[in-house]
Design a protein that fits this description.
Elements (H helix, E strand, L loop, with lengths): L1 H22 L3 H14 L4 H13 L3 H14 L6 H9 L2 H22 L3 H14 L4 H13 L3 H14 L4 H14 L1 H13 L20 H21 L2 H77 L2 H10 L8 H31 L3 H14 L3 H13 L3 H14 L4 H10 L2
Amino acid sequence: MKYDIMLERIANCYYNMGLERARLRDLSGAAGLLKRALQFDKYQKDARNLLGLIFFECGEVADALVQWVISMNLLPEDNIADYYLDEVQRKPAILHICSENVKRYNQALDYAQNNNEDLAMMQLNQVIEDSPNYVKAYILEALLYMKHENWVKAGRCLYRVLKIDRNNPKALVLMDEVKKRTGRAEVEQSRLRNVFSHRRMTEDDVLIPQEVRQLSPWAVVACILIGMTLALLFFYLLLLPARLKALNGKNNQELILYTEKLDAANRQLTELQSKNAELQSQYDTVQNQLTQYESGNAGFKSQYETLTEISARYQAGDMLGAAKLYASLNASEITDESLLNMYNEVKSYMEGSAYRTLAEAGTAAWNSGSFDQAVEYYTQSLALREEAENMFLLARLYQSRGETEQANALFDRIVGEHPDTPYAERARQARGY
């Protein structure tokens, strides 16, 4: 018990130090201290929530969401992380933009590694335009400028990073290099020397004290009279506060009037925002319903066209085309009652007679020497309905072409799946066992 209390106190200490660093905009230092706090006490929700805010400030929205979700899972009651998550989830555009920025940053990094600096710079400019606080993007852009020895622009990028995160270690190292290249480092060192420099006294230096002058009695009287005069002037000047008070009262009245107008405008703005949120919610609901209707209507149209095309090809004698379309259908997606009736009708003649017609067409193609065509007919026949006969014919065709592995696989399936048919014995003989 005492050990747990000690760990909790250590975690609180690290949290307080991290909070102080965060107030000073030292986000990197604050993040390190907060992580140490969580190592000692993973239930320190204030440290975890603040770490999420630091990640969010640096453009790492995904890392921030991870910290807030963990915080909610560990301590769901009275947790401000719920507010942060709600704020982000109410604005899905933020998540979309952040996701796109991560993809663009990764693409820019890949371009930079493959010496495509122009493309990388284009991606980074888009990232920074959408997320002005994306620290990683600024640092990578600064590195690209430094590679082309454009030290001024590199310094601007690093300055923006340090404005967000005052002690970012990568930015500080790169900024030192930029200052050396631009001569800024020497200027700063010279200023520092001038501030702290002083000349030492030598033994020849002599301190000459200032002469002390004695005041005469008349000078003392004059000083007293001047003091009294100034006192009288200050006394009469005390009348001014009454005038100032009157002016202040008038200004206060005007300020109260403007404040009331501002409050009224704020209330009106709040009402308009509430109405806008309500209208946006209604619009989203209608849009979702419309999307669902369009999606369902598109699916119904596609299924109807496919079934109609199957019937048309079957009636035209194009059994192969009809079989391919039938195989592409997913019966589980057909929910409309009229389409189900139509599908059952197509299924009855496709699996009832079409498979046999395809097998016969395959045999005819085999006899005419069109082996590839025969394989296709037999394969589509099996796709419609697996029977021992069409399976045996396809196996024999493979065997005649020297494709022993495919033939043996089909012979084994006939023996295993259709053992009571006459083709099972024929398959054993053809297989050689």
